[in-house]
Design goal:
Length: 113
């Protein structure tokens, strides 16, 4: 296995942007998810341009602060977990990665300890 390619066919959308919001990478699921908006052609564009207000301002704040942002959404009956988190290169904040994973509307929750 090529250690740098595991995410390319992950059954969830992965989008990576730099500190300035420029989209650097998208896996196959992300390209399909955002196909109507340009798909792979979005690479090299700014993620801020893809979001209306107030989401654009929230995303701008996340890019500046490097905080983690996690929430769920539902579109067309499909529920997703959205996990946006900073990524680092040699210990230096380099941008954000967004994971979008489909989740069941009801699912078990385990408390372990």
């Amino acid at each position: 296995m090529d250690a740098s390619s595991w995410w390319k066919e992950l059954p969830g959308a992965v989008t990576v942007c730099g500190r300035d919001g420029v989209i650097l990478e998208m896996n196959e699921r992300a390209r399909r998810t955002f196909e109507a908006d340009g798909g792979a052609a979005l690479i090299g564009t700014n993620v801020l341009d893809c979001h209306p207000e107030p989401a654009r301002t929230k995303l701008r704040d996340l890019l500046a602060s490097g905080r983690v942002h996690v929430y769920t959404i539902e579109k067309k009956g499909i529920k997703k977990l959205i996990y946006q988190a900073p990524w680092f290169e040699a210990g230096v904040y380099a941008g954000f990665v967004e994971l979008s994973l489909e989740i069941p509307t009801a699912m078990p929750h385990f408390i372990r300890g």
